[in-house]
Structures are given as C-alpha cells and as structure tokens.
Amino acid sequence: MVFTSLKFILFITATVIIYFLFPKKYRWVWLLLSSYFFYLSASIKYGVFLVFSTAVTFSAAVLMEKLTEKADISSLSKEERKQAKKRLQKRKKLIVAFAVILNFAVLFLIKYYNFTVLNISALAGVFGIEFSPVLSSLLLPVGISFYTFQVTGYVIDVYRGISGAERNFFKYALFVSYFPQIMQGPIGRFSQLSETLYYGHAFEYERMTRGIQRMMFGFFEKLVIADRLAIAVDTVWAQYSSYGRIELILACIFYAIQIYADFAGYMDIALGASEIMGIRLSENFKAPYFSASVPEFWRRWHITLGSWFRDYLFYPVMRSGWCSKLGKFIKEKFGKKLSGKVTTVIALMCVWFFTGMWHGASWHYIIWGVYYGILIILSTLLAPVFDGFVQKHSIDRSKPLYKSVQILKTFALVCLGYIFFRSTGMTQAFGIIGRIFSVSAPLNSPAGIGLDKADLLVALIAVAVLIITDIYRAKEVDIREAVAAKPLVLRWAVYFILLFSVIIFGVYGPGYSSSSFIYFQF
Amino acid sequence: MNIKLQRIIKAAAFMLIFCLLFSGATYILRNKNEANIVLPFYDEPKNTLDVIFIGSSHVMCSVYPMELYDRYGIASYVFASSAQLLPQSYYQLKEALRYQTPKMIVLDVSGVIYDTKISTAEYAHVQIDNMSFSPVKYQAIWDLFDSGSRTEYIFNIVRFHSRWKELGKNDFLPIKSITKGSYVSTDCTPCSPNREISTDDKTAMYPTAEKYLRMMIELCREKGIEVMLFNAPAVEEHESLPRCNAVNDIAQEYSINYIDLNMRYREINFDPATDYRDPWHCNAKGALKVTAFLGYFIKANYSIPDRRGDDKYSFWDSQLKEYRSQYEY
Prior knowledge:
The complex is a heterodimer.
Chain A: H1 6-21, H2 27-40, H3 44-70, H4 78-126, H5 144-160, H6 169-177, H7 179-182, H8 190-198, H9 205-238, H10 245-276, H11 294-300, H12 303-319, H13 321-334, H14 336-359, H15 363-381, H16 383-392, H17 400-422, H18 426-437, H19 453-474, H20 479-484, H21 488-505
Helix pairs in contact in A: 1-2, 2-6, 3-4, 3-5, 3-6, 4-5, 6-8, 9-10, 9-19, 9-21, 10-17, 10-18, 12-14, 13-14, 14-15, 15-17, 17-18
Chain B: H1 3-29, H2 35-38, E1 51-55, H3 57-62, H4 65-72, E2 76-80, H5 86-99, E3 104-108, H6 121-129, H7 135-144, H8 150-154, H9 157-160, H10 207-222, E4 226-231, H11 240-245, H12 247-254, E5 257-260, E6 276-278, E7 281-282, H13 284-301, H14 314-326
Parallel strand pairs in B: 1-2, 1-3, 3-4, 4-5
Antiparallel strand pairs in B: 6-7
C-alpha cells in the first residue's frame, strides 16, 4: 500500500476515525492491528521476518532485564560484587550480541548474500578458481533495513541501560511495526517513541488540521516534484551517452531534488499522519541542501540513520578494545595528535562503508558511502588548514556570500555523490562523470529530456515552493503556524492551491506509470 | 456560537468548496469525446422518448433520430458510445430506463463478435464518463472493471488530470448537440461488399456477449418494452458474419425481430461504394437508407405513435428546424 495511493488515503482515514473511537487505554491495540494490516497487505510472507525480529529482540531485552533484576548483589562483598557485575555484564553482552547478530544475519542472508557470494566467486575467478555459487531467491521484505536498525538499536539501548525492556510483547510489536514508519523510517528510538505511541491521545481539531496539512505537503513533494523530475532523470540516465554536459549536470541536480522531495515527502506524510493521532515521530530532515559543509549535510539529511550509525557503530568502534590498542600504539610511536586522528578515520570509514552498504548490496552504493567517508574525513583533517586560510585572507564567515558559496559547494559535492547512488553500476556512474568532465563531450544535445516546457515550468514553480518552505524549516519557523495566522480566505486559498496542485499537476494515474518511493527498496 | 459548532461549520464549508472545485476540475479536465452526442440525452424531457437505440458507434452513425421524426413521427434517441460492447450496453440500457419509459428498445448487437466486457480503457471511459452519477454507473464500474482500475472510472480525474497541458476552449464551454445521439458525417470511403453467406452459416456466440444480450432482452420484457435486435451495415471481418448470424437463434427463442443489414443491405439499396464513411460506419447517405428502412419497419411492426403535430412534442419541430439549418447531407 503506497502512501500516494487512494487505498492508503482510505486506510489512513479509517484508521484515524477508529483510533479515536477506541477506548483511550486500548488505542495502541488498534494501532498494532492496523500496522500489521498495512504491512501484511504488501505480502503475508514478509510478516514472518517481522515477527521473528520482533520476537528475538523482545525476548533478548526482557531476558537482560530479568538477569539484572535477579542479580542480588547487596549481600556480597565489594570484590564479589565487582565479579558478579562483571559476570552479569558478560551474560548481557552475550544476549545482546546474539540478538544483534541474529537480526543482522537475517538481513545479510536476504539482502547481501547474493552480492557477497558473487563477489567471492569473481575474486576466486581471478585466482583461477572457478565455481558457480548457489544464489538465494528470497525477496527483500519491505522496510527490513529500517526495522532491523530500529530493533537492534532497542536491544543495545536496553543493554546499555538507556531504555527499560518493554514487557508487553504486543506493545513492543507496535513499536517495531508502527505503519507510518516501518517502510522508510524514521528509525525510532524506544525511549522517545514508546511514550507517544502507547498513550491514548485525545482528538484535537487543530492537531488534525496540522497533520493533514503536513500530509498534503508530502503528497505535493512526492507527486508534483519528485515524480515529475524523475521522468527527466530516468530519461537522461537511461541514455546518458547521448546527452551533453548541460543535460547531465541538470539531471544530477534534478536527481538531488527528486530524492529529497521523494524521501522528505514520505516523511511529511508519515509524520503528518502520526500527528493527526497525536503521535510524534523524529524529524528526519532539516533543510539539508542549505548545509554549508558535507558533515553538516549529514546532520540534516536522514537524521535518524546518521544518529543510529553514530550511536551504534561510530562510538562503539572508537571505544572498542582493538581501536584503543591501536590508538595507544600510534600514540606511543607518533604522538597523541595522530593517534586521535587515525582512530577517528577508522571509525568514520566503518560508518560510511556500512552507510553505503545499508542502501543496497551493490558496489555503487558502497563507493557512494566511501565517497562521503573520504569527504568527511578530509573536511575534518583539513579544517585547521581552511581555518588558517580564512584567517589569513580575513574572510568574513558571517557574510551571506561566503555562506552561499559554501552551500553551493556542498550541494555540488552531494550531486556528484548522487551519480554513484543513482547509477545502476560503476560503469554507468563513471560513464556519466567522465562525460560531464570531458572536454570532447558536447555541451548539450538535441534529444529531449522527457519533460516539455509546461512540465518544466510546473517543476520550477514547485521547487521554488519547496525552497521557500525549506528556508522556513532552516530558520525553525513553523510555516503551518504562519499560514494559520493569516485571514481565513487567504489561508484557505493556500490550502486549496496546494490540494489542487497535487490533484492536477501530480504525476499519478494511468497517464503516468506508477512509481514507488525511492527508499522503499532499501 | 460555541467553538465546536464553528469548527463543524468550517469543516463542512471546506468540504463543500472542495467538492465544487473538484467536480469543476473533473469536468474541465475530462476528455470530452462524444460528450456532445451522449450528454444531451439527459436534457430530453422525462418519459418523452418512444424508441431508444442502444449500442456502439455502428448505430450512432447509421440511425438519425431527426429523420425518423421527420418522416415517421418517431420520437427516438441513439444512446450509444463508440466500441460499446454488450456488457456495457446492458448498463447503458439501465441508465436510459432511469430517465425514459420507451415503448421500444433497439439493441445494436455488433458487439457479439467480442468476448470481453469492454474493448479498451479509452473507449470504456467514453461510455462511463458520459453517464450521470447514479447507482447504475457504479454497478457498471463494479461489474465491467477489475479492482485495480475502478478508481479511474469513479474519479476520472485520475486518468485525465494530465490534460491540463492540452485544455482548449471547448473544455470550458457547455456541451450542446441537436443530433439526438447520432454522429452525422458526409465523408466517404468506397468499400467492397461483404462476402455472401447463408443464414445457416453461424458460429456460436461468446458466453459473455450472450449472457448480457439475454439480460437486456429480459430486462425489457420485465418492463413491458418491445425489443428489436439490429446490426448496422459494416464491412465485417471474415468471422463476424457467422457470429452475428447466431443472434438469430436468440431472436427466435424470445420471438423478437433481428435485422442484420449486413445480410440484407441489398434490400435497402445500400451501396458499399458510396455509403460508408469508413469500413465500419455509414455516412449520411448510408444512414438515410438505414434510417428510412428502420422507420418503415418499426412503423409496420410495432405500435409506436406518430408524435408530429402533438403539442407535447412541439419542441421536436423547432429542434428539427435547427437541425436542418446545421446539417446538410
């Protein structure tokens, strides 16, 4: 059930109405039922993996908490207490490791097994060892990358004592399967989500209207902007060798806007739908294309994925025994400064390798991740050099021109990265980059990019609207409140224009081939 | 006024404005194919039509109700749409009977050569989009289309919203026509005559076509309406004639008339070299011959009143005048 389908609109309408008709105490039960209905409507088979992940992490968390409760160390001596604590920690570590490994094993088997064995086979071929690997035909359950991260984050939080274990299996099942977020996130944290999810929220008129407005804007982003630009992007990418540099650069920019409008549009629909029921989900974007640096971009783009990697991969790698040992070794040999830098670089490369891999089992995703890793490492390592340069030339960092140049530089780097991301393989990615930077390639081509002037005009106006709303978002001004403060005629005009822009200018229906959200595949 | 009531009124007003804008946008954006032929049916005064022709473009191009009135005083309408198959015709008939209580229904059976419920989505839209909002329309949508495509017929803006780029003056003007459902054309494509076959040369009807043909006949019987089956001249494909011949069995079974002018075109001096607009449709010259024959046959075999001179039907006279001033053939 795609968010932009009529089925979903009917589903969300029914879900919201019944939610508020349910006794407050049991409203979460209704959410669980509708979430499972939503998820299983994609495929009943997918449910097996979801239930498995839910059951494993639920049991692991409860077991860890029970072990902690059982461990009565008050009567023990200080030394014995220390030993008992150590033993407990070890047992908990085993449990959390078991739960995390089991979940990632499932993800690996489904998502990465074929990629891995094919690469091993290719590598073996280089050494003259020929074998044809047995390939898996398992279909990728929708949302598995998202909910696997959410459940593993949860057990690690319980292990760390950040969250208590949820003792009600069904309540926990709702945390994992909550329909607005299961397919594409935001990747929720139990400590933040549980309270808002299980609480029986009362109906609030203002909140409902705000939620609907946010959903409408999500539809606008997805159907008017993302899916319209996708037509041009798909056309140029499919036959990149027949296009000139201008069209290729334009396609990269279009793709950057497309993927943002697509993903942020989904988020606005998910967060808006939740807001109607009083449920607050984490924000996943904060006007990312207004970032002045690549690290800042990643703090404002897919925020919940970035924070997951920070908390559950970057810090654990930094604090791991082997990394500390390596740091110590470098510190002794080359000094403290380098030691810190090397461990950070290692941790960052791990994060960005896996960020790339998380997006898909393909080298172009890995390269895309590594590309960001290199950019972020360079910007961290070269920060003092830049600072020195800025000081030496007395550049005023607060000036709008400086900021604009930084924003444009970041956007250009992001667009370059998207070439790897959007391409179907490395040949295509390098083919496009090669053409963009090749002097012999034509500047432009007579071939159309799939959008006529009227469509381009609509796209241009819609993107201008997106930029304006992002300026508000960047300034943390609530645009919905600003519109709500206007006189009734004016604000209704805004709502109707938005609504009918989606209905008339949206790319949907038999006139267009239907497209799903980009992040569905991850 | 308390805040709750205020909000309810506001929400209702918002919904009302939305519905008005939505129906306006739907109307403007929709494809207007054949709307000028079909929609005036709804402007006919209730229960004034004595004969209604139901079917496809075959009947739309070969029967001119204005001529039937002028020559025989028959008040009729061709309530048809292009490539309309028999299952679609069943709902077209039901829709017609919501507004009129005709004495006679003439069913175009050219659709018997197809085994499907519709021909293409585009043609199905022509029929469904020109139907008024009624339970019959939704019954038709439910029955004729699979679950994946019903939405675009319930809300045709789903299909046609992309027409915003190609809107013209006609999309904003009210739809008018004086032809009473017929398509008048003076174009000519010389065609060869159909091959000769005997009435015994027949191929069994397709189950879907037969089912809906029977349903239509039985519906008319239930309502005490005379039914006649009809097939207009068309340069048929090789296997079509035997398939149409099978309709004779149904006609005999129900003791109703079936006129297949593909078999009897010589009787009406129909000349394939001059009377076709294209190989499937009559032009005005052909249509006059078909209409004259049908008028004669209906008058001779059914008790259909002559409405000429009837005060209640004086509007037909003024419409005929306008028709004559607009069409010359």
